Amino acid sequence: MARAIMLQGTGSDVGKTVLVAGLCRLAANRGLIVRPFKPQNMSNNAAVADDGGEIGRAQWLQSMAARTPSSVHMNPVLLKPQSENGSQIIVQGRVFGQAKGRDYQRLKPQLLGAVLSSFEKVAAGADLVIVEGAGSPAEINLRAGDIANMGFATQAGVPVVLVGDIDRGGVIASLVGTHTILDDGDRAMIAGYIINKFRGDVSLFDDGIRAIEGFTGWPCFGVVPWLPGAGRLPAEDSVVLERLAKGGAGALKIAVPVLPRIANFDDLDPLRTEPDVELVFVRSGERLPADASLVVLPGSKSTISDLADFRAEGWDRDLQAHARRGGRVIGICGGYQMLGRMVHDPLGIEGRTLEMPGLGLLDVETEMAPEKTVRNSTARSTEYDTPLAGYQIHLGITRGPDCIRPSAIIDGAPDGAISADGRIIGTYLHGLFSSDAYRARLLASFGLSGEQRNYRESVEQALDEVAAELERHLDPRWLAGLLG
């Protein structure tokens, strides 16, 4: 059986995802067969695994870090928050159903078998499995039926390393408090802890380490500094959007309205890394900037609900004004559906609103359908005749006169639509901007240099940098035991 370790956090967003990715890359660099695993994830940033089906985007990144094909078993339960219907539940890559919070709590014990079965499949033939928890084991109100943290760790017999985020403050209290409220069985699963996101002289925390050990008896496996490379990795959680500051002034301003149910927003990461691009995330209460040359409407887990919120913010008027000024718009997946004349949902798949007028910038209409398209795709841009590679995860079929001008040919079939004046573009292809040749041609069309940069290579370099920092700052004896 493969060795395994589980990283759990004292809270959400403490940096577990990056630490797991970095440890996967470190193990892979040492020649180990290593695989990531997350029993339960909640995110609308999904990916299509190499064996088909949906997994959290973070587990896709971690499999890339591990240099191993991604699998639906690396994230057997994925919750995708919707609107009034609660969350869509994906089990081993396929739609299982949907449930609201309390109903899901009752459902979790039924999913434990699938989680343990997937863990066995991931562990088979591996030297090491690095497991990521969700939220915090300190949420003892959710302990009954838990499959994401201690419920999994105790059932699978996987030791736990707690991760505390010192950047947010209160890290000593969060670690000691977790020790205090866990029951004896769960507490016994914890092998030690890691302090994450430290800024400054690490020796200043020596007294803190002694205090934590005095209260808990747990050893410290390392104090990890703030990792610059982490900022160049695709973001998983929409919490990150709240922290993304407006980029420095660039030659090209691109505006992105942050929808309440935004999905797959890591589509935008390649643009964020371009030095001549100022990517502006427009939040509730703000206006779409009048000086933006391009507006990108990202994916959505609930097109109709997000369309209603888009109007409530007044962004529909801003977008119409942008279009009248000759500005350009790209809509991806749900954003593409919003750009049409009408969105129909006759079966109430998204909720009680059965249809809603779209933004009217493309002469197309969308009808939601129960069958979900989930696949990795190769494509070609009709606009620039450049290769594309990405994935599709969507409900609905879009048709209309503007579809005679497809934006891409995906797997040999036309996809998307382009307006008659060529300024409004819609597509179902996620990962559009990750295609280096397309991104270079797009930026060149706005007068930028059009220099082609290798985005995938920049992510690989960032993973190597994170792995090197972990090797430098984690306890070498603990690493030797883990990776030996």
TrEMBL record:
PROSITE patterns: GATASE_COBBQ (PS51274)
Residue ranges constituting the CobB/CobQ-like glutamine amidotransferase domain according to the UniProt record: 253-437
Pfam families on file: CbiA, GATase_3
A single BP term in Gene Ontology: cobalamin biosynthetic process
InterPro entries: Class_I_gatase-like, CobQ/CobB/MinD/ParA_Nub-bd_dom, CobQ_GATase1, CobQ_N, CobQ_synth, GATase_3, P-loop_NTPase
Annotated active site: 333, 430
Residue ranges occupied by any CobQ/CobB/MinD/ParA nucleotide binding domain in the UniProt entry: 5-237
MF annotations from Gene Ontology: ABC-type vitamin B12 transporter activity; catalytic activity
CDD domains (alphabetical): CobQ_N, GATase1_CobQ
Protein's job: Catalyzes amidations at positions B, D, E, and G on adenosylcobyrinic A,C-diamide. NH(2) groups are provided by glutamine, and one molecule of ATP is hydrogenolyzed for each amidation.
Family statement: Belongs to the CobB/CobQ family. CobQ subfamily.
Protein name stated in the entry: Cobyric acid synthase
UniProt source species: Rhizobium leguminosarum bv. trifolii WSM2297
